[in-house]
Amino acid sequence: MITAERKPLDEILELVGDKKKVLVAGCDTCVAICLTGGEKEAEILAAELRIKAEQDGREVEVEHTAAIRQCEWEYLDMIADKVEQADVVLSMACGIGIQSLAEKFAPKLVMPAVNTNMLGMPQEHAVWLERCVACGECRIGLTGGICPVVRCSKSLMNGPCGGSHDGLCEVTGPEKEEIECAWALIWERLKAQGREELMFTDRPPKDWSKSSSGGPRKMVREEAKPV
Amino acid sequence: MRRRSRYERYDFVVPLVYAGKGSVMTATEYKAGSNLEKILSEGKFAVTGECGPPKSADGSVIENKAKILKGFVDAVNITDNQTAVVRVCSLASGLQAQQNGLEAIMQMTCRDRNRLAMQADILGASVLGIKNILCLTGDHLSFGNHPQAKGVHDLDAINLIKMYKDMRDEKKFQCGEDMDVAPGLYIGCAENPFGDPFELRALRLKKKIEAGADFMQTQCIFNIPKFKEWMKEVRALGLHKEIKILAGITPLKGVGGARYMQKFVPGMDVPQEIVDRMAGVEKGPASHAEGKKLAVEMIKELAEVEGVAGVHIMAVEWEEAVPEIVETAGLLPRPAVA
User: Fold this and answer.
1) Which residue in chain B is spatially nearest to A168 when comparing CA positions?
2) Which residues of A touch B13 (CB under 8 A)?
3) B162-191 in b/e burial notation, b at 16+ Cβ within 10 A?
4) Peptide bond before residue B285 is cis, with ω within 30 degrees of 0
5) What is the extent of the structural domain holding B215?
6) Strand B104-109 relative to strand B132-136: parallel, antiparallel, unpaired?
7) Which 158-197 residues of chain A touch chain B by CB within 8 A?
8) Do B98 and B126 contact (CB within 8 A), yes or no?
């Protein structure tokens, strides 16, 4: 799933500026599951904005809504009325949803209320871990189902660097939390699968043109197009 | 009966590619013809040093370091934004070292350049007379002074070695296009015998040899028994015959540095007895002398290990210690090669 984190209130207030009619638009898919931008979180942000406006003595009308999926045109039709009435829409969807909303209702002012941060999975309740960067050339069939592009801090293709220690990466996370060494995990997994030889096979440079380095990507499924 | 290495079962996977595609290399068939290559090819014990470029446009730093090391080492590593901190680039500093009579080993990390830049820089280095290159992944950006930067990591160190080998031997760019004049390169790599998983370390060196590495420098060695254990695996795989191994030495100035490396430097293994030994002497001239003495002892012990072809002395911001260490270790005069 796509995960996102809400922006700090001050940054959101700056984005809203002096607009009088604000719509907070949540999305009830990925960002709702990661407890950041669903209908409930949209309601909470709307309340925060109203309280802040009252404290500051400003007259602001704040509404909230949520689309089932902000990233698809048909779901956006369902919130069109509220969007039309707003001076500014604060989208709590991922970057895809925010842009869909902005494009559908252009030139309506649509602002991001969240930072989209990763394609991750919930490891436990309220903890998400990055698992994919959509590089466009998946090699995890050769690495025991563990992605070195995203899980190795240096995206190494050919085994662990010299900084791997006791199964941990030399890099620590933003809160100084430990990060598992992807290649130590890959090695253990390959051993368990009896496929150790894959560790010693040369992996050529990746084709990054299939990632965002190749420019904005487009996928067309001709066979699925309406006749 | 010789104990069978637990790694030998992997031998069938990727047979070693020998230098010169199986042909016996003669003295005239150097890959780059660098001083370092000649010394190692002739089976002489090599000594390399290390120079960190300055964090400013101060042209005197490398010049002064080169003057200190000249005649005491066969070539000198010029670090590439080491610990992810911006410095004068390794190409310019390498050239400057060579202009001051010291052969450069230009370090190249995968952190700051994509494959275009890494090929362009090596062509430029070759045009300017730099012949030794050390291919590294690079310390992570989070350790440096620009942690907000975008890490490149287009290639990894093994991809980099292979790319340079193909440029040199096949006259081909990474994309497969031909070039007219190939760069003459003596290709180095690094390996950390103290990194985990330990059972992968010798095998990873094998992978680097297959990619095309000619020589290898290790991470700083303090834990000699563990290094010897690693070398045993290296010899069991026959790797010491395929690559020239230079054992890494860092002279300690005092107990502070020892403790710092023990606790904070990724991939370092500093046994407590080393820390205790440095703690037993007074900080200053006494600890400096002890650090040099320890380095000499370690060089002598490492030189006896079968498969060690030389030492790489990394006297970080303490280049002045190198001449005395090299001399006391009995490694002078440095061999002159034609």
Assistant:
1) B196
2) 197, 200-201
3) bbbbbbbeeebbbeeeeeeebbbbbbbbbb
4) no
5) 32-328
6) parallel
7) 158-167, 170-172, 181, 184, 187, 196-197
8) no
Residue A181 with chain B: CB contacts under 8 Å: 196
User: Is B114 in contact with A209 (CB distance < 8 Å)?
Assistant: no
Same domain flag for A21 and A98: yes
Partners of residue B163 in chain A, C-beta under 8 Å: 205
* Integer Cα distance of A44 and A113 in angstroms: 12
Q: Which of A155, A166, A202 shows the shortest C-beta gap to B211?
A: A202
Cross-chain CB nearest to A205 (options B137, B159, B219)? B159
Residue A61 sits in a domain whose CATH number is 3.40.50.2300
**Residue B96 CA, distance from chain mean position:** 19
Strand, coil or helix: A222: helix
Contact B140 A163 (CB under 8 A): yes
Tokens of B211: 């990619």
Residue B8 domain flag = no
Domain tally, chain A: 2
- The reply to whether A112 falls in a domain is yes
| Pair (A36, A95) in one structural domain | yes
- Residues of A within 8 A of B190 (CB-CB) are 162
Could you tell me the pTM of the whole model? 0.92
Separation of alpha carbons A25 and A109, rounded Å: 12
Domain that holds residue A172: 133-213
The complex scores an ipTM of 0.92
Closest in A164, A187, A208 to B154, CB measured = A208
Closest CB to A162: pick one of B162, B206, B267. Answer: B267
List the single residue in B with minimal CA-CA distance to A154. Answer: B153
Instruction: Answer yes or no: do A187 and B197 touch at CB < 8 A.
Output: yes
Same domain, A46 and A100: yes
Q: Is A108 on the interface with B (CB under 8 A)?
A: no
A170, B192: Cβ pair inside 8 Å?
no
DSSP 8-state class, residue B172 = B
pLDDT in tens, A134-165: 999 999 999 999 999 999 999 999 999 999 99
Task: Note the pLDDT tens digit of each residue in B230-277.
Answer: 999 999 999 999 999 999 999 999 999 999 999 988 788 999 999 999
Is residue B154 less than 8 Å (CB to CB) from chain A?
Answer: yes
Q: What is the per-residue pLDDT across B56-84, written as a single tens digit (0 to 9) for each? A: 999 999 999 999 999 999 999 999 999 99
What's the order of all strands across the beta sheet hosting A88-91?
A61-67, A21-27, A88-91, A109-112
pLDDT tens for chain B, 338 residues long, are 444 444 444 443 333 433 333 344 444 689 999 999 999 999 999 999 999 999 999 999 999 999 999 999 999 999 999 999 999 999 999 999 999 999 999 999 999 999 999 999 999 999 999 999 999 999 999 999 999 999 999 999 999 999 999 999 999 999 999 999 999 999 999 999 999 999 999 999 999 999 999 999 999 999 999 999 999 999 999 999 999 999 999 999 999 999 999 998 878 899 999 999 999 999 999 999 999 999 999 999 999 999 999 999 999 889 999 999 999 999 999 999 87
